[in-house]
Amino acid sequence: MSLFDWFDNRKKSSPISQVQQEREIADGLWTKCESCGVLAYTKDLRANAMVCPECSHHLRIYSDERIRQLIDPGTWVPMDETLVSCDPLQFKDRKSYSDRLRDYQEKTGLQDAVKTGTGNIEGLRLALGVMDFRFMGGSMGSVVGEKLTRLIEHATENQLPLVIVCASGGARMQEGMLSLMQMAKTSAALERHRDQHLLYIPILTHPTTGGVTASFAMLGDIILAEPKATIGFAGRRVVEQTLREKLPDNFQTAEYLLSHGFIDAVVPRTQLKATLGRLIKLHQPMPNASDVFKGNLGARPATLS
Amino acid sequence: MTATERKPQLLDFEKPLAELETRITQIRQIAEENGVDVSAQIQQLEARAVQLRQEIFSSLTPMQELQLARHPRRPSTLDYIQAISDEWMELHGDRRGGDDPAIVGGVGRLAGQPVMLLGHQKGRDTKDNVVRNFGMASPCGYRKAMRLMDHADRFGMPILTFIDTPAAWAGLEAEEFGQGEAIAYNLREMFRLDVPIICTVIGEGGSGGALGIGIGDRVFMFEHAIYSVAPPEACAAILWRDAQKGPRAADALKITAKDLMQLNLIDEILPEPLGGAHTRPLEAAETLKATLIETLEVLGRLSSKERRELRYQKFRAMGVFTQITA
Known about the structure:
The structure holds two protein chains of two kinds.
Chain A: H1 3-12, H2 16-27, E1 30-32, E2 39-41, H3 42-47, H4 63-70, E3 77-79, E4 83-85, H5 97-108, E5 114-121, E6 124-131, H6 142-157, E7 162-168, H7 176-195, E8 200-208, H8 210-213, E9 224-225, H9 236-243, H10 254-259, E10 265-266, H11 272-282
Parallel strand pairs in A: 6-7, 7-8, 8-9, 9-10
Antiparallel strand pairs in A: 1-2, 3-5, 5-6
Chain B: H1 2-5, H2 15-34, H3 39-58, H4 62-69, H5 77-84, E1 87-90, E2 103-110, E3 113-120, H6 126-132, H7 139-154, E4 159-165, H8 172-176, H9 179-189, E5 197-206, H10 207-211, E6 218-222, E7 226-228, H11 232-239, H12 246-253, H13 257-262, E8 268-270, H14 281-300, H15 304-316, E9 321-323
Parallel strand pairs in B: 3-4, 4-5, 5-6, 5-7, 6-8
Antiparallel strand pairs in B: 1-2, 2-3
Helix pairs in contact in B: 2-3, 5-14, 7-9, 11-12
Function (chain A): Component of the acetyl coenzyme A carboxylase (ACC) complex. Biotin carboxylase (BC) catalyzes the carboxylation of biotin on its carrier protein (BCCP) and then the CO(2) group is transferred by the transcarboxylase to acetyl-CoA to form malonyl-CoA.
Cofactor (chain A): Zn(2+)
InterPro entries (chain A): AcCoA_carboxyl_beta, Acetyl_CoA_COase_Trfase_b_su, ClpP/crotonase-like_dom_sf, COA_CT_N, Znf-ACC
């Protein structure tokens, strides 16, 4: 045994207080910020939209928590919760795709990597899709593509604004070309939504990459992102390999995309709901918006509502 | 053609065939020198060569198909455009500050009908490939393609796209100028266009880089072309943690024309001359031309509204999933 091993072992056999601390973290009472390391009461953290009170780091959150944060209580109506993938290619890498799916379903309680439905934000009805990174890295296969397409079509039929919270590594390779075509399918549905002059706002969260970036994530009328989220088409490592050089630290961050003109705003999670509410209201048809302007200013007539 | 005069580039699986052909030549030479009549034997050997060729090319593995799809002599977009069009003029630039040589396009005439022809362009040799970036397009390439397709839509010209790219370019500038946005935009806008669109995968259909000009009323694939969600080598590196497992990934990903036909993701497989399109490029071009003309005629009978609806439904139906009973 070398001296280093001995040091390593010493670290592993940690003092009781740390064991206790870890147990409480496991219990979910405390949450450790992965950025600055500070321990925060999970309850406080939740009240702060899972944003670290010390360093403003946005801890990763998942679909249920996101819906809780955005949607007015009691207004969420989920859609297509029973759609599941059926391993059309009988794909097997180091593990079969069927087994992988089952494991993720058991582990996460989700059927696949997106939740869709309708709900209210500050009293305004909208269609919302939330990708869930826990489920196979939020990858898009047939189920994600189908659920999002149905959601977009529902929004078009019912003249609803649409919000999709993106978090994905890209296309799901285990479904081969069927995955790639989901990019086309969702984009097609968005074309029809757009054709009806309806508002679509994607929210890019950490990480949004690959086929999702090259389809619905970048097709918003207005695009918002969370601070420091990684957003890009090719993965950072792939780009580094192609170029054989180190990339700037801020490469592919939300802030980088903002300065390059690809998104409209970086919005802290604590302000996301209010920002969405404001934007949706600004784009609503208002027949009697003002007593000052009587003429036709090009505003779209209110067909519904 | 000068290409046929050069020494053909052999793929591994073609070697037994090449050996047999060399033997036939040798025997013929020896026979001639010695004045012996061996025509019967030669005929037999030649028949065997044809049979062997058929055997080899009818049972290619996906990795071998990939090798054929990437064959350096495989006809490129410009080869096909020149072969099938009555006339054509290349147009340049995305009107946003760039002109990507990895995507070419222009106006031309197919059997008298004005059309827009565009596609990925790989290089013919190393020097050319440096200019063409091996057919890996940048955002300005996709934006050029879109500009040309909008032009076609305005002037009522059908759009013919040719897909042949390993992938969209993954470089610093590509990210900086919005590779994701450029592809996404094309995906959406191609559903808006009124004119008929026919896409043909002529070689390598690499992921989003291919799909960026791949939304059509019809999508065709040449017999030995491939179309993949990710390069098999990259997929192997991620899923198997071993880039050497490329052949297994190529198998699992279902990338051949036959696979895609079975999955209902393409409309038709265009047959290639035995041995691949590069052995007789003009014959492959004839097949392409005939199919395009025939298909344009069919699509021309529909109204633009019908075409758009059918285009939507075609891609809408893609995907396989099931429903659990709650």
